[in-house]
């Protein structure tokens, strides 16, 4: 496919509860459109692993399934957006998660003359999310995501993409914590659907189906939004 022509770097937002498939879809869009997936969850997990001040402040909140403070997350995102590799554009996965974060993003983009090309809501049933989340795991070497039932590896314990064998499961994917994460989503993040609808950039996708079908619908939206 030809690369879409954009004058400023594209900004796409994926909205949806934990388990909706934001990470999986963002990675597919990266490959297809040459955009950079920017996951505040990944950035925070890296900060926790590195033992930075932000990581130490975020650790307990993340383990409990709550939302890390806006100040910390906005600072992490601002730093990441300043790096050179995001020049072509970004897919925001897991950010913004509060109205304060959405307003901070608007202000950041205004500074650089960028706009939000599309905010795509991945619509799913809450009940299915616990199943989806509790079965998922990732390749520790390349980051490819899998699921015990919905997307198993071809050979048990071996990554289809890179051959790595270091599979990881997230500590906050335990069933007890998933309930808290869904609650945080509904209380603090779901209002952003109306926020982006009011800006005229909201698109919605039924994300209960097959990964490839959802990816196809999403790619059409992104193609359109980037031209
Ligand atoms: P995720 O990988 O997107 O599911 O995020 C994992 C955890 O990181 C969340 O449950 C939150 O505790 C924290 N987190 C990630 N992104 C944000 C954000 N934008 N605002 C607040 N907390 C966040």
Record the strand order, biggest sheet: 2-3-1-4-8
Q: Structural class, judged by helices and strands?
A: alpha/beta
Order of helices and strands: EHEHHHEHEHEEEHHEH
Count of DSSP-assigned helices: 9
Strand element count: 8
Radius of gyration: 17 Å
Shape: globular
* Percent helix: 40-55%
Mean pLDDT: 93
Sheet bearing the most strands, described?
5 strands, parallel
The ligands bound in this entry are: adenosine monophosphate
Q: Please give the alpha-carbon distance between the first and last residues.
A: 13 Å
> In percent, how much strand structure appears in the residues?
15-25%
Low-confidence stretches: none
If you had to describe this structure to a student in words, what would you say it looks like?
- There is one protein chain.
- With 227 residues, the chain is of the alpha/beta class.
- The protein has helices spanning 22-33, 40-50, 53-64, 70-81, 99-112, 126-134, 175-189, 191-199, 211-226, and strands at 10-15, 36-39, 89-93, 118-123, 136-139, 145-147, 167-168, 202-206.
- A 5-stranded parallel sheet has the order 2-3-1-4-8, with helices on both faces. Strands 6-5-7 form a 3-stranded antiparallel sheet.
- α1 (22-33) packs across α9 (211-226), α2 crosses α3 and α6 (126-134) packs across α7.
- The longest helix is centred in the C-terminal third of the chain and has 16 residues, at 211-226.
- It is globular.
- The model has no long low-confidence stretch (mean pLDDT 93).
- The protein binds adenosine monophosphate.
- Adenosine monophosphate is lined by residues 18, 39-41, 44, 61-62, 65-68, 73, 94-95, 97, 101, 172, 181.
- Residues 18, 39-41, 44, 61-62, 65-68, 73, 94-95, 97, 101, 172, 181 line the site of adenosine monophosphate (AMP).
